[in-house]
Amino acid sequence: MEEIFSPRFNVGFIFILISVICSFILIIYYLNQKLLFFKQEVEHLKSSIKNLDHQAKLIIKNDIELKLYQEAVNDKLRKLSFLKNFISASLNILDREKLFSQINREVIRAMKFEKACIVTFQDLETIVNLDFTSQELTSLKQFIEKNRDIFATTPLISSNSGVAQELKEVLSAREFLISPIVSGAKIYAIFCLYKCSLPEGMSEAEEEVFSIICMYLGQCLDNIKLFEALYRTGEELEDKVKEKTLQLTKTLKEIEDVSKMKSEFISSVSHELRTPLTSIKGFSSLLVGEKFGKLPPQAKERLKKIDENVNKLVDMVNTLLDISRIEAKKIEVKIAPSDICKLIQDVVDFLMPQAENRGVSLVANTPPALMVLMDSNLIERVLVNLINNAIKFTPPEGKIEVKCVREGSKAKILVSDTGYGIPPEDLENIFREFYRVNDPKHRQIKGSGLGLSLVKRIIETHKEKIWVESEVNKGTTFYFTLEVAENV
Ligand code: ADP
After folding, report:
1. Dihedral through CA 353, CA 355, CA 356, CA 362, nearest 10?
2. pTM of the full structure
3. Ligand 1 centroid to residue 408 C-alpha, Å
């Protein structure tokens, strides 16, 4: 006991007590600190949880928005695909009835409506009626009749617009859309969709699709109009062509008849003239030959002139007869392989004295030989006529060349001169009967105007071509072709 109350003991005790108190304080402090730390941790955790909750909410909200957006996109895609199908189905339709038959129940359902009708703007005639009752139809027509001016300025009337209030009452307040179908700047019809089938009611998208369909129908109507106009023009043109062809055939027949009559007339006149002319010719040559006794010089001079002119007349009548015979196909054409070069040379030799008399040079320029299909007698007459003309219409010291060249399956024969030439305005006429160039230089040379007409007919009987090129005071070239006889 004494020990307990001894000062040494007291100091020890106090020291221990202080140590315990200190430790206790320290422990309390430590615990307090830990508590504070845990509190902070809890607070931190709480705010984290709150954050997480906010983010989760955000995610859910985004997810919902995304879903809504996805639905809207899907709806837009569906509408686009509907529009694409509708447009491609009616793209090539060129008939009004067929075009409006595309507006059927399926299309109306795709546009999210239950009923539809289309009425012509002018006569209020119903073109399409999909489940409109007669009362609804009458109300719509009355509305159109009353509000014609509005359609000119309003492309779309919906049940939401004030204009449609009166109609809304009649159509028992359900949603509807009305739009004009415009073609060629005029309203052709009025399209009405009625009773939207969407539970949430129609939106801008429905209005948009409806507007596009109405615009597209208008464009289709424009195309149909254009096609009809084109078709009409085509038909009119066809009728005109038919009419003109008929007229032409008639005129051609008339020309043929007249030409036949003319040939027959020329032929019979020439025949009639030939007999007396032959006897006149016989007598005149006997008289000129003084077979009936001597004649006074003056009489002999006159008789010579008569004889010359009778000869010309006989030539003329003979040529006329030949022309009419060829035209009437009464002449026998013997087309056979023959050497055109030899024929040219022969004709040139035959006409050489005539050329020399006129003082012009005449040369043939041909290959050694070239076989062609021809009636030699007739082609000889062609060459004689052409070379004769060249001699007649070329002044002294001029040149005449007769050439033959092969061009593929054809032989081309050229008769060129350096003579007076033919004025351009006469070129297309010189093959006509009795046509002569009206020029003093040409007129002073005697002729009948029949030679080239005969030449042309002969070439045509060979189914070949003849043409001319000429320049006044420079010269003329006549060309004609003949078929080369290949296997000879
Ligand atoms: P003709 O020679 O008898 O008058 P043609 O029918 O042979 O009749 O010729 C018709 C017209 O063509 C001639 O009158 C002449 O004016 C013109 N003509 C023909 N050949 C030539 C030519 N080589 N050069 C110039 N004019 C020509």
Report:
1. -110
2. 0.54
3. 30
